[in-house]
């Protein structure tokens, strides 16, 4: 028997990118709203577009997996990787500033005066040119603490510390929830995935499923009620 064909069985990557640019922009702006204005939106847009292009190249159409849902996952993944890189860079620059200040203080105590750049560079074990580069990076505003860059509401940098009791309770709930989700109808499970995991809003989910926002809300509500009943019965 010949394999069943689907409308996007052989999608054109260029057409997929062109028709989903708004999706990439919406996700980039959504992430920008979560992490604050200190992350340039232009940088996030560029990363989002690259994630979209990567998704278009990798996508293989399958039933129940529209390109918009697949691309959303790839775009968000690219943005999260970018934020982690920025966080790492912020830490490295903070450490750089701390070294300079500590070494300056030590030299002031030894020399009984403020050290010049050559003396400071020698004490740091770098060349004057390297020290000047550090200065430029700091002066350019690259030193930003994680508290300044990312709010407590950021999904990437949220505090995940749990007590032993919390962990046990959470694991039990995860098991119950996993079983309940597995028993959901396919469309209800997809709506929950897009809304809670991929963080699409009802308008974006409506575009993915080709239904109204009201219908998305109905499906989400039905899925949540079904999960509540399943967990209550398990308890």
List strands and helices in order, with pairings.
Elements: H1 13-19, H2 21-35, H3 41-58, H4 67-111, H5 117-124, H6 128-139, H7 146-149, H8 164-182, H9 186-197, H10 202-209, H11 213-234
Helix pairs in contact: 1-3, 2-3, 2-4, 3-4, 4-5, 5-6, 8-11, 9-11, 10-11
Describe this structure as you would to a colleague.
The structure is a single chain. This protein folds into 2 domains: 13-149, Orthogonal Bundle (Rna Polymerase Sigma Factor, Chain: A); 164-234, Butyryl-CoA Dehydrogenase, subunit A, domain 3 (Up-down Bundle). It has helices spanning 13-19, 21-35, 41-58, 67-111, 117-124, 128-139, 146-149, 164-182, 186-197, 202-209, 213-234. With 235 residues, the chain is mainly α. It contains 11 helices and no strands. The longest helix has 45 residues, at 67-111.
């Amino acid at each position: 028997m010949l394999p069943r064909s689907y409308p996007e069985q052989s999608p054109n990557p260029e057409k997929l990118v062109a028709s989903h640019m708004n999706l990439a922009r919406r996700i980039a702006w959504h992430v920008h709203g979560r992490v604050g204005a200190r992350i340039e939106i232009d940088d996030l847009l560029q990363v989002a577009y690259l994630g979209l292009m990567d998704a278009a190249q990798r996508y293989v159409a399958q039933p129940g997996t529209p390109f918009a849902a697949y691309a959303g996952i790839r775009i968000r993944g690219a943005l999260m990787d970018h934020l982690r890189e920025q966080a790492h860079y912020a830490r490295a620059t903070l450490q750089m500033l701390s070294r300079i200040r500590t070494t300056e203080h030590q030299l002031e105590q030894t020399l009984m005066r403020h050290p010049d750049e050559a003396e400071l560079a020698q004490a740091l074990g770098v060349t004057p040119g390297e020290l000047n580069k550090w200065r430029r990076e700091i002066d350019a505003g690259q030193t930003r603490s994680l508290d300044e860059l990312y709010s407590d509401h950021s999904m990437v940098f949220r505090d995940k510390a749990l007590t032993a009791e919390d962990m046990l309770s959470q694991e039990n709930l995860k098991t119950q929830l996993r079983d309940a989700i597995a028993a959901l109808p396919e469309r209800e499970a997809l709506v929950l995935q897009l809304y809670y995991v991929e963080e699409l809003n009802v308008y974006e989910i409506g575009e993915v499923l080709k239904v109204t926002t009201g219908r998305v809300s109905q499906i989400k509500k039905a899925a949540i009620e079904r999960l509540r009943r399943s967990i209550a019965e398990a308890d």
